[in-house]
Amino acid sequence: MRIAGVDLSARMLEQAAAKHVESQVDLHEACVTVLPFPDGEFDCVFCINSFHYFTEPQSSLLEIHRVIREGGRLILVDWCDDYLVCKLCSLSLSLADTVAEAIGSDDEE
Fold first, then answer.
1. What three-state secondary structure class fits 11?
2. What is the mean pLDDT of the chain?
3. CA atoms in the 13 A half-sphere facing the CB of 25
4. Structure pTM?
5. Choice between 31 and 21, residue whose per-residue pLDDT is larger
6. What's the rounded Cα separation, in Å, for the pair 65 and 67?
7. I need a labelling partner for 63 at 20 to 30 A (CA). Which of 35, 43, 75, 86 fits?
């Protein structure tokens, strides 16, 4: 089984690598509109909590479709900050990231 992770942000890829996933996941810095994979490479593609950031959603979906084999699946899970609960979740995740970064910087000293 091949698992690949893609993000436009080098910082996000660094966070993934810090979780020691690189032995299980091939990490790639790339834009979703130009994925570094051949046609039909994957049985399933997961797009989690990022679609609302895509500046070209239609092109992004076409490119994701390109890398999914015939009969494959796209699992797209997303939220937005239009609803109070989503805003509260977003705030709590932001605070958790800030705390984790502070703890990580203490460990490095």
1. helix
2. 85
3. 15
4. 0.70
5. 31
6. 6
7. 86
The SS3 assignment for 1 reads: coil
One-letter-per-residue 3-state SS of 31-81: CCCCCCCCCCCEEEEEEECCHHHCCCHHHHHHHHHHHEEEEEEEEEECCCC
What pLDDT was estimated at residue 89? 73
The two three-digit tokens of residue 86, written as one number: 């989503």
In one-letter notation, the amino acid at residue 97 is D
For residues 30 and 36, is the Cβ–Cβ distance under 8 A? yes
- State the residue for tokens 């810095």: 29
- The confidence score (pLDDT) of residue 13 equals 92
Q: Which helix (H) or strand (E) holds 102?
A: helix 84-108
Residue from 61, 48, 47, 52 nearest 83 by CA: 52
Tally of residues, the chain: 109
